[in-house]
Specification:
The chain has 310 residues and is α/β, with parallel strands linked by helices. The protein is built from twelve helices and twelve strands. It has a six-stranded parallel β-sheet, sandwiched between helices. A six-stranded parallel β-sheet has the order 9-8-7-10-11-12, sandwiched between helices.
Length: 310
Amino acid sequence: MSENILVIKLGALGDFVQASGPFAAIRAHHAGSRIVLLTSQPFADFAQDSPWFDEVWTDSKPRLLQIYEYLKLRAKLRAANFSRIYDLQTSDRSNFYFRLFWPGPYPEWSGIARGCSHPHANPQRDFMHTVERQEEQLAMAGIAAVPAFDYAWVKTDISRFGLADQFALLAPGAAAHRPAKRWPRDNYRELSAHLAGQSIQPVLIGGRDEKALLAAISDTIPAAINLAGETSMDDLFILAKWAQLAIGNDTGPMHAFAAGGSPTIVLYSHESDPALCAQRGDTVSIIQRKNLASLSVSGVIDEIGNVTSF
């Protein structure tokens, strides 16, 4: 039977990447139905190109006192006549969106909003890895089979970057308000020099706000290239497909590199727990130190030898 289905996944990048299995499972379970995604602007174009959704809505994330914006969203949600909503964000914001259907009727709702029809009723859910947590949530909503991620559909031309035949992706950044997640910049500079000496071009990846950080590394290594702010989400997966290696902190692009097929080394500090959020892929290695400054460049180079042939 054809239905109107809504999926809520607002971000962030790593969480969005790890939701692809649930996206595909919902698409398969509701074959023939109209499936809408409510997401954040950075993911809208990528989601629209995917095989999972018929329509993509962008959430403006209204602030608490922006009552008019909430009223517009409420009207849009109610007018769409959704029979079921899968809240894969399960945040305070998305829980509040369940309340926008008051006084009813309420659609079927998979999530953790109080009073929803298909709650993820596991009190230990916050101690599960994102992938297993979402699989269990969907199982409790009647979707038993969640496939592994598959980004084979992603297409984009990376020739515009003019990269060498052999290159390594480096992600030296992380959330600006969590500096402890970053391996020291000078270590990335030394690692870049080592890779260049092995005829592996260092390709530095990050957001526009990380351009200066990446330039401080790439400007001292003639072979290196700084792509801060230059890559789309599609680019990340295709770059990973052709890269010899990806190394970086626990930051969003590393999830795309791992899922895209690159041998991947992720550096964790005490700031995040890989048991809850580690990157997933065929060749992913996690190095964790309480303080990343204590991790030597030689230690990372040794790990490169474990995951690659150079």
